[in-house]
UniProtKB/TrEMBL annotation:
MF annotations from Gene Ontology: serine-type endopeptidase inhibitor activity
Protein name: Glia-derived nexin
Stated family: Belongs to the serpin family.
SUPFAM superfamilies documented for this protein: Serpins
Serpin domain location: 3-283
Lineage: Eukaryota, Metazoa, Cnidaria, Myxozoa, Myxosporea
UniProt organism field: Thelohanellus kitauei
InterPro entries: Serpin_CS (IPR023795), Serpin_dom (IPR023796), Serpin_fam (IPR000215), Serpin_sf (IPR036186), Serpin_sf_1 (IPR042178), Serpin_sf_2 (IPR042185)
Alphabetical list of SMART domains matching this protein: SERPIN (SM00093)
Length: 286
């Protein structure tokens, strides 16, 4: 799993040793961003406090994520993105079978879920997109499957997150034979490099005037770490039907089989924002 981006202010905290302005404290509260003052001059104690926060906000699933911190640090942003995917139309666990997944010239056995249903899909030269309703129809799980002859790197070059609403608007309904491997996204990632890749670098510069306005002369963001725990599997509850949906619906269908590396996104179509993006190269690896 290679996490690219995740947004969820509900479980985010800015650890700081600077004095934060009252104006920014109010803004942080409005956006559900927690502020915690910490003594970064005592790095071992700061690391302990931060790791305890991460453990608490991952329900005890992750420990000692932070091993060391830069001695120059005075602000660090941490965010936890946790989701139990709830499909609007659940996958039937009895239809999940061991199937090959091809990556890097090799194949591996994965647990492949299967579903026949009507979904929104759209095509591009470099990939096919499938939009799968999740979380009570408030969001979409978006599968971006590279076309033959294209790689994840090619998709990354051609596709921009900001354009996803356009792909969704251009999508049309199609009856799919959908196969997706079960997988878990569990890990942490330093987002500084990722954001700099998207030309978001000013927030990490010590001469940033905006940071000086709310955190004083020496205030600037040194670290931005995100912890992700997303589980993608069949229904959370018992699936009562033992019937293959294909036998019920019948008719012509389009294959959408994720048997090779693909991108997995969580998209909030009301807010028009990508909440999570990750590349799935090995579904068996958390």
């Amino acid at each position: 799993m290679e996490q690219l981006l995740a947004i969820d202010n509900a479980d985010s905290v800015l650890f700081h040793s600077s004095e934060i302005s009252e104006k920014y404290k109010k803004m942080s509260k409005a956006h559900r961003m927690n502020l915690e003052k910490i003594d970064f001059t005592n790095l071992p104690e700061a690391i302990r406090v931060i790791n305890e926060w991460i453990t608490k906000h991952t329900n005890g699933q992750m420990f000692n994520v932070i091993r060391e911190l830069d001695a120059r640090i005075n602000m660090a942003l941490f965010s936890v993105f946790m989701r139990q995917i709830t499909w609007v139309r659940s996958f039937n666990p009895t239809l999940t079978k061991k199937k090959p997944f091809y990556a890097g010239g090799k194949s591996m056995e994965v647990e492949m879920m299967k579903r026949y249903y009507i979904y929104n899909v759209t095509e591009a030269k470099f990939a096919n997109f499938a939009f799968i309703p999740i979380n009570h129809n408030h969001q979409q799980a978006v599968i971006i499957l590279p076309n033959e002859g294209f790689t994840l790197d090619d998709v990354f070059k051609h596709f921009k997150f900001i354009d996803l609403p356009i792909y969704y608007q251009k999508s049309s309904v199609s009856y799919l034979k959908l196969k997706i491997p079960k997988f878990t996204l569990l890990g942490s990632k330093d987002m500084v490099r990722t954001l700099k890749h998207f030309n978001v670098s000013l927030i990490f510069e010590s001469n940033n005037k905006d940071f000086k306005d709310f955190a004083g002369e020496n205030g600037f963001l040194k670290t931005f770490l995100q912890v992700v725990n997303v589980e993608v599997k069949e229904a959370r509850t018992i699936y009562f039907s033992n019937t293959d949906d294909d036998a019920v619906m019948g008719g012509w269908k389009t294959d959408f089989i994720c048997d090779r590396p693909f991108y997995f996104l969580i998209y909030d179509h009301n807010a028009r924002i990508v909440l999570l993006a990750a590349s799935i190269k090995n579904p068996n690896a958390a």
